[in-house]
Specification:
alpha+beta, Beta-Lactamase, Heat Shock Protein 90, five-stranded antiparallel beta sheet
Length: about 625
């Protein structure tokens, strides 16, 4: 039983579905727009923090460069580079003096690239001592060109001993800044966790130095995005709804990564966006419910109730004039249209009633006429069959006498000319007798008086007998036979042996009659299945035109050469005989190269037993 939904339920369902879709659309759009705006604000905040940290790193190098000024513009340093004063070196260049300046490396170099002195001492425990020779080689301090290149940069950051190392350089002059530069002073300072902690405290952000490998792996992080819009590219990784990590990579002068700074960012904008969106969603739900109720009330009051009144008036009023609806809109127009239709329907019913009575009377009269015509046709057909049967019997008696006397004349003829004349009479009489027999058989079939004795019949003797009877005529036309290769000794079918021979002989006669000169007739035998035997007879004639195929098995239809002998009863009679034996005769295929007929009969599982005589 199908579920019936009224208009009110459908309207309510449509309103609910529409508003759900509308709410979903507004929800999705507002979420994307609102959260997208807060995401952009969050990205700007992260970018600002990354830029602040990057600037803090630059300020450390700038501060180191400015501190170097007091030592590079100093008369004692100026004199030391020229004469290598041992007292100055002992007093100012020892490991403790280097550490007291909060640096890890100090190198004096002359303008020609000769190293005057190089001191290295870690200022913080756990930080390795700088390798002076490696740094001198890496910075190319022994070459005037390398010194000039380094001086053009003023300060740079290297990765040394696994730590970032800020290195700066200044020319050595007198205290007042006069005089020609006699050399260069190089300072180096590791960046350690202590420095990052100071930057974190001053900028009020959490900074952690991590290895490059750790930054690349980022285990258990749910989402990462890259930002290259600002001056400092970074990668943002969302750890949780409240915290995100910004990874800022510091590179050396060759563009190779040295270390990664991880900046922890509190996702305040994200939390604010979620809170704002939830508030918007609550109001959206309330508005959707109110709008749904209002819309449903309007539809129910102005449409559904009036439709119900119209439906009731149409179904319960017997008079069309009672179908009315108050108002001046489409529904009232619909009621007026129904009223007009009902009035027209009443008139049509009366008219149809009269037409129905007239039609019934006409049908009754026509039925009587057709019944009478059918009975007359049956009687005429029976009379025709009876006439053909009597005429055939009447014709057979004198024909038999003619054939008999022709045979006597042939045996007792005094000369060859008389023998030939008797032979012509005998052939004509025999042909006429065959035609009469065909007409008689067809009349018996139509009247239901022809009976067949269906019994197991061997196929091979029947085919050989039929071929032997047709072979002389085929030889006169140059038509050859090609028999099937299937062993026929054990093949037997359910059939009347005489009628099977008649059908086979008729098919072979047609194959010879309509074949081309020097043509060929192929006889094939096969089993379609365990219970059906098929005999195929194929000729090499011109085939049957397509428009004639439908009339092929009709009585008295001759579709081939009109000059050929025959009455057109052969195929019709053969198919009827095949049906009486429980089989079928059909046109299998036809083409300009030839025609194939197929005779299907029921196969015999057990062969008949013959007494040896």
């Amino acid at each position: 039983m199908r579920l019936r939904l009224g208009i009110r339920a459908k309207v309510l369902l449509a309103v609910v579905v529409s508003l759900i879709l509308l709410g979903t659309t507004i929800y999705t759009c507002s979420r994307n727009i609102l959260m997208g705006s807060y995401a952009r604000m969050e990205a700007n905040d992260v970018r600002l923090n990354v830029e602040r940290v990057a600037n803090a790193d630059k300020q450390l190098r700038t501060l180191l460069y400015e501190r170097l000024f007091d030592w590079s513009c100093w008369d004692d340093s100026y004199q030391y580079v020229q004469d290598g004063n041992a007292t100055f070196a002992k007093t100012n260049l020892g490991p403790s003096e280097v550490a007291s300046n909060k640096i890890d490396l100090m190198i004096y170099v002359r303008n020609d690239g000769k190293i005057v002195s190089a001191s290295a001492a870690p200022r913080i425990a756990g930080v390795p001592k700088p390798t002076v020779d490696q740094l001198i080689s890496e910075l190319d301090l022994t070459s005037p060109a390398g010194l000039q290149k380094f001086a053009a940069r003023k300060a740079l950051t290297l990765k040394h001993q696994g730590f970032p190392l800020n290195v700066t350089i200044r020319p050595i002059t007198k205290t007042n800044g006069t005089g020609k530069s006699v050399g260069w002073l190089v300072w180096g300072q590791y960046m350690t966790s202590t420095d990052f902690a100071k930057i974190s405290q001053s900028l009020k952000v959490q900074i952690t130095d991590v290895s490059i490998a750790e930054a690349l792996v980022r285990p258990n992080f749910k989402k990462s995005v890259s930002d290259t819009a600002g001056d400092t590219p970074y990668t943002l990784t969302y750890v949780s709804p409240d915290v995100a990590y910004a990874y800022y990579t510091v590179k050396d002068e060759h563009g190779q990564p040295i270390w990664v700074q991880r900046i922890a960012v509190q996702r305040n904008f994200h939390a604010q966006g979620i809170e704002t969106f939830h508030e918007l969603f609550r109001w959206l739900v309330i508005g959707t419910l109110v709008l749904s109720a209002a819309f449903f009330f309007v539809i129910d009051f102005f449409i559904v109730r009036r439709l119900r009144r119209l439906t009731w008036s149409i179904g319960n009023s017997q008079e069309p004039d009672l179908v009315r609806l108050k108002g001046n809109d489409e529904l009232s127009d619909l009621a007026d249209a129904f009223r007009k239709v009902l009035k027209a329907n009443v008139a049509k019913r009366a008219e149809l009633g009269q037409l129905n009575e007239n039609l019934e009377e006409a049908v009754r009269i026509r039925t009587l006429e057709l019944t009478q015509a059918i009975e007359e046709a049956k009687q005429a057909n029976a009379a025709k069959s009876e006439f053909l049967s009597h005429m055939s019997h009447e014709l057979r008696t004198p024909l038999n006498a003619v054939i008999g006397f022709a045979q006597l004349l042939q045996m007792r003829a005094p000369d060859p000319k008389t023998v030939d004349s008797a032979e012509a009479i005998l052939k004509g009489g025999q042909h006429l007798l065959d035609l009469v027999n065909e007409i008689l058989d067809l009349a018996k079939i139509e009247s239901g008086k022809l009976s067949v004795e269906v019994e197991p019949v061997l196929v091979k003797p029947v085919i050989e007998h039929a071929v032997s009877m047709v072979r002389p005529i085929a030889a006169q036309r140059g038509v050859a036979f090609r028999l099937c290769q299937t062993p026929l000794e054990d093949l037997a079918v359910h059939a009347d042996q005489q009628r099977l021979l008649q059908v086979t002989l008729n098919l072979l006669s047609n194959a010879v009659k309509y074949n081309r000169p020097d043509g060929e007739i192929s006889i094939r035998c096969s089993m379609l299945d365990a219970e059906t035997f098929r005999l195929e007879i194929e000729d090499t004639g011109q085939g049957i035109p397509g428009e004639h195929v439908s009339r092929l098995f009709a009585p008295f239809e001759r579709l081939g050469d009109q000059s050929a002998e025959g009455t057109g009863l052969g195929l019709a009679l053969s198919r009827n005989l095949a049906h009486l034996m429980g089989g079928d005769l059909m046109l299998l295929r036809t083409s300009p190269e030839g025609t194939t007929f197929a005779l299907d009969l029921r196969a015999v599982n057990e062969l008949p037993q013959y007494d040896a005589a």
